[in-house]
Amino acid sequence: MTIPNILTLFRLLLIPIFLVMFYVPVFWAHWAAAFVFWLAAITDWLDGYLARKLQQSTPFGAFLDPVADKVMVTAALVLIVQDYQSLWVTVPAIIMISREIVISALREWMAEMGQREQVAVSWIGKVKTTAQMLALIGLVSGWEPFVFLGMPLLYIAAVLTLWSMVSYLAAAWQYLWKHAGS
Q1: DSSP string spanning 107-168?
Q2: Which of 40-54, 99-113, 124-138 has the weakest average pLDDT?
Q3: What one-character DSSP code corresponds to residue 119?
Q4: Rounded CA separation 86/69 (Å)
Q5: Which one in 3, 21, 74, 105 has a CA-CA gap of 20 to 30 Å to 65?
Q6: Is the CATH number 1.20.120.1760 carried by domain 3-178?
Q7: What distances in angstroms separate CA 28 from CA 6, 109, 151, one per listed residue?
Q8: Cβ distance 122 to 164 under 8 Å?
Q9: Measuring CA to CA, which residue among 27, 45, 40 is closest to residue 75?
Q10: Secondary structure element (H or E) that encloses residue 19, with its range
């Protein structure tokens, strides 16, 4: 068990804590949930950094890290959709969740084709993730100044989400087209 894998497992354990904190009937519940989400976002960055720095990348970590990320982000998106009950939050959330499903399936399929490197994480994906995490921290907190910053970041993340999806699909297009009839 490597340090990066321990951090990824810790992030998975934070998911139920995040959900419980969001719904605890106290005035500081959303702040606590935002803090737990922030902690998860930090561990996401840290486990990747340490895996590279300590040369502790493992197949288990390569599998589990994106799963932990997707579940945490999807949980946060579902919570803010339910909490805000606004089309202005729902549309970007649906875009982001849909993109994650499509790109995860694409990466799996490309790996089966022996072409996973064609859809490796790009700089657009990293910028998207940063905007997404900051937006979600702000929106989960519910504090008006953070919400004021979180809403535009949510839309920036949604645009980057679409941009990165188009980039990944374009990179995989020749393989998709070649195997479309098989």
Answers
A1: HHHHHHTT-GGGG---HHHHHHHHHHHHHHHHHHH--HHHHHHHHHHHHHHHHHHHHHHHHH
A2: 99-113
A3: G
A4: 24
A5: 21
A6: yes
A7: 29, 43, 21
A8: yes
A9: 40
A10: helix 3-23
Q: Which residue has the tokens 């990747």?
A: 48
Give the containing element (helix H, strand E) for 26: none
Domain ranges of the chain: 3-178
Counting every residue written for the chain, the total comes to 182
Q: What is the pLDDT of residues 142-180, one digit of tens each?
A: 999 999 999 999 999 999 999 999 988 888 888 878 777
**Tokens for 91?**
């549309």
Inter-residue contact 78 to 100 (CB < 8 Å): no
Tokens encoding 80: 């803010």
Provide CB contacts within 8 A for 142, sequence distance 6+: 30, 31, 34, 83
